[in-house]
Amino acid sequence: MGFFDRLSRLVRANANAVVGAMEDPAKILDQSVADLQSDLIKLRQAVATAIASQKRIQNQAEQAEAQANTWYERAELSLKKGEEDLAREALGRRKTCQDTATALNTQLQSQAGQVEQLKQSLVKLESKIAEAKTKKDMLKARAQAAQAQEQLQSAVGNLGTNSSMAAFERMEEKVQSLEARSQAAAELAGADLESQFAGWCQNQGTNRRAFGRYRGFDLHELQNGQYEGSGFTGTGLGATQ
Question: Which residues are within 8 A (CB) of 132 and not within 5 positions of it... i.e. 6 or more apart?
Fold first, then answer.
């Protein structure tokens, strides 16, 4: 395929796409029905013209037949008067009129067939127009409903629901991260406190086993000296073994 063929096809495709995007279903349907109505008017005119032509041919055929009869009567009259040459002339004119009438009758039959076909086409077109009008109203209603639905979906899409949900998800992750950091800080603080007590007990000469028993008492019990058997003596937190 040549370059110009490809370019021509591309231009036609883009033009069709632009035209398709610009088409309004309601307007196109109205215009289509209007075009059918215009065709109907033209077809009716064609039928009327064909019928008029049929009538004219029929009249001409009847006139030719009438003239043929007239010339036959003249030939008979001429024979009665002994005018054989005049009778032959009259019979010749009769033959011409008969040939004309025969040709006109043949044309009349052909014209009658054409008129019948045009009438049938007219009936079919009228039926199509009636059907098109019914479909037009239905399709226009469907098109309006589809456009309304499209506008609704567009409006819903512009509400920013997805971005809002994404914001919620980000905040949820952030809160979870803060909670994890807080928990980690609490665990680190607890470990430091344990290390301080362990160092303090070591500085006071307390072994780890006694310190383990010491941790089972609350502050009130310790202050009242209720830690007998724990390995510590004294009445306060500053007491030594």
Answer: 32, 33, 36
Task: Say how many CA atoms lie within 13 Å of 213 toward its Cβ.
Answer: 12
Q: What is the pLDDT of residue 189?
A: 66
Q: Mean pLDDT, to the nearest integer, of 65-72?
A: 94
Nearest CA to 238 out of 207, 191, 205, 208 is that of 205
Question: pTM, whole model, 2 decimals?
Answer: 0.50
Q: Report yes or no: 230 and 213 within 8 Å, Cβ to Cβ.
A: yes
What pLDDT is recorded for position 175? 83
Ordered by start, the domain boundaries in the chain are 3-159
Q: How far apart (Å, rounded) are the C-alpha atoms in residues 135 and 143? A: 12
Q: What is the dihedral of CA 76, 78, 80, 85, to 10 degrees?
A: -110
State the DSSP code for 159.
T
What DSSP character marks residue 12? H
